[in-house]
């Protein structure tokens, strides 16, 4: 008895020692940071002086700030509503195409995935050049549009860049999912005389449902948190046309002369709750259809 | 079986030791150096004792024997360590500072300056450091950010140290030293500054047959010349960017202000400011000025370098930029034109400040005094990176022989510090957007400026 007990203890110890480094990092940089920012969201805190407890005032200050509901929320929702469906559909199509035995398949797989391994800062800078008034895009299209300095085109331009850069990652996840689908199903369908589109509709899509859920969830979280490309390409402008929730959080936290960490933390928690709710609703929705 | 049982524990210990070794944070501040000296002697009754004293850096070691033979190692006098941080605009500027620090290390041999540059996100980093009490003894302070640090009481007043070192406020340009004064106390020694000058492209002026600008120009002269150049060359005469670091001088020249004297309210919707806004944005509507975005660049300096605009209001940073990027540009600079109420300019300045937490404020001040001494500032001036903050240098031959630097330097006389109080960036954004609404959406100046003023007031009320 003691022998097995000791062995169990040894196993247990080994396991914890193995995960210890991650546990420490996660504990310090995620759990502690999360708890601290929850605390900050109830305080008045400018970084230099110790935080002062003021209760839930910051949450009201976020919700009442004109920029929050007039610019940040609608811009983020618009962004998410366009980018998530577009990148999901595109990456699914790419993954399906590249799952077939076509010529130069490996080349295309690499090419489509390449943007995902490139730094978003580098992508942002490159697209600033491409979309500049005398840039390549305008010359190809024969237009004279200042894409990033126009209230109407700035956000769609950033959407386009983000779809381009994230489709590769989503495609990779779909490819993995596609490879899990047993080929017998396709063979059986082929014997029954199903066409390729029919196979896609009645075999691929249903069996990929968990993967689709995963990709859409990732997409929603990613788009709700969009920041880097906006910071690089437009700084939230022109006229706040590209100010998103996270960009506003950044401005409150570090943008002004007096940092407002309390309000920034409160906005971050509001965003976290929003993401959580949206993800749960979407899970319900997808699970119900599965039956 | 037996071996297997122990294997996980041994592995665990091994990994634990590796992890703990990796996680152990090194404490570089105090180094305890231990040396064991083994003295072997054949003589009987010799006892070796070791006494170790730990100084900040060096180790003083006395080995005492019963025979009363004392061996003392020669020890350097410990140097006081001060840390210095600043942002890095370019490798050249960083090297210049390092050269000055070397000179100062000769002058103050008892002070060791540890230079810790912060390459990006300077303000987020320095504010976080101050919040956690880990900021350097000396750091760069921009006038735009100064009010926040001053009101939070995290800076060391330096008047006493100035008196001790014989540094007088009168030695520095009044606009600059006054800018870093708060509630009667001096908090920083300005290291350099910039103002705006009217940079003009000589070739375009020659081509259009227009006389070069002078320091006596007014808005009317600017408009007349810009119109002539636009008509004659097809290149826009002037540039009116929606930039809160350029537009305010037109408000000043029209007798207005951006903020009231104690920064509790904005005067952006005053008649003076609105009239200045009409002149500024009207220049583009009338066709004799552009905004940089019109010619496909992000800032007007690039438009000027490329020859897409004949005149721009920019600072001394244009000189190294044009030398590097557009070495063929034939240009000069004069004071900005005067408005209906006279001259007006903006001054951008940076000072060295000392942290209130500094353990060696005296050594820190000595370092600052050396970095801003006349010899140091001559080196800065002749390198062409920045203008010196000392009055005595206004007659320096470099300024006499360099009309651009001279225009920027003497511009300080009529200049207001680029600083809008505790919500400065909100003011900046509101101002930029007030101009953008006019440019991009065709809103009237009155309406747009009123909206901006309301936004600023809402932020100030919080």
Compact overview of the structure:
By secondary structure, chain A is mainly α.
What Rg of chain A, in angstroms, do the CA atoms define? Answer: 24 Å
How does the major sheet of chain B shape up?
Answer: 7 strands, mixed
Gross morphology of chain A is: globular
Query: What is the rounded Rg of chain B?
Result: 29 Å
The total count of strands of chain B amounts to: 17
Number of strands of chain A: 2
- Report the β-strand fraction of chain B as a percent range: 15-25%
Please identify, by name, the CATH architecture of the largest domain in chain B: 3-Layer(aba) Sandwich
Helix content of chain A: over 70%
Total tally of structural domains of chain A: 2
C-alpha end-to-end distance of chain A: 47 Å
CATH class label of the largest domain in chain B: Alpha Beta
| Terminal Cα span of chain B | 71 Å
Low-pLDDT residue intervals, each spanning 5 or more residues of chain A? none
Please write the string of helix (H) and strand (E) elements of chain A.
HEEHHHHHHHHHHHH
- Could you say which overall geometry of chain B the principal axes of the C-alpha atoms support? globular
CATH superfamily of the largest domain in chain B: Periplasmic binding protein-like II
Essential attributes:
heterodimer; A: 291 residues; mainly alpha; MetI-like fold; two-stranded antiparallel ribbon; 2 strands; 1% strand; B: 462 residues; alpha/beta; D-Maltodextrin-Binding Protein, domain 2; three-stranded antiparallel sheet; 42% helix; globular
Describe the protein in words:
The complex is a heterodimer of chains A (291) and B (462). With 291 residues, chain A is mostly helical. Chain A has two domains: 2-40, no CATH class; 66-290, Orthogonal Bundle (MetI-like fold), CATH 1.10.3720.10. Chain A is built from 13 helices and two strands. Chain A has helices spanning 2-40, 57-64, 66-99, 105-117, 120-130, 136-141, 154-179, 183-191, 196-207, 209-224, 228-233, 245-255, 261-290, and strands spanning 43-44, 52-53. Chain A is globular, with a radius of gyration of 24 Å. Chain A starts with a helix and ends with a helix. The model of chain B is unreliable at 16-37 and 39-48 (pLDDT under 50). Chain B has three domains: 42-78, no CATH class; 80-193 and 347-417, Periplasmic binding protein-like II (D-Maltodextrin-Binding Protein, domain 2); 197-346 and 422-461, Periplasmic binding protein-like II (D-Maltodextrin-Binding Protein, domain 2). Chain B contains 18 helices and 17 strands. In chain B, strands 4, 5, 6, 9, 15, 16 and 17 form a seven-stranded mixed beta sheet that branches. A three-stranded antiparallel beta sheet of chain B has the order 1-2-3, with no helix packed on it. Chain B has helices spanning 2-23, 91-107, 122-131, 146-151, 159-165, 174-179, 202-208, 219-233, 248-253, 271-285, 300-306, 318-325, 361-371, 374-383, 397-401, 403-410, 424-441, 445-461; strands at 48-54, 59-65, 70-72, 80-85, 111-115, 138-142, 181-182, 185-186, 188-195, 197-201, 238-239, 289-290, 311-314, 331-334, 345-354, 387-388, 415-417. By secondary structure, chain B is α/β, with parallel strands linked by helices. Chains A and B meet through helix 1 and helix 12 of A and helix 1, helix 3, helix 4 and helix 17 of B.
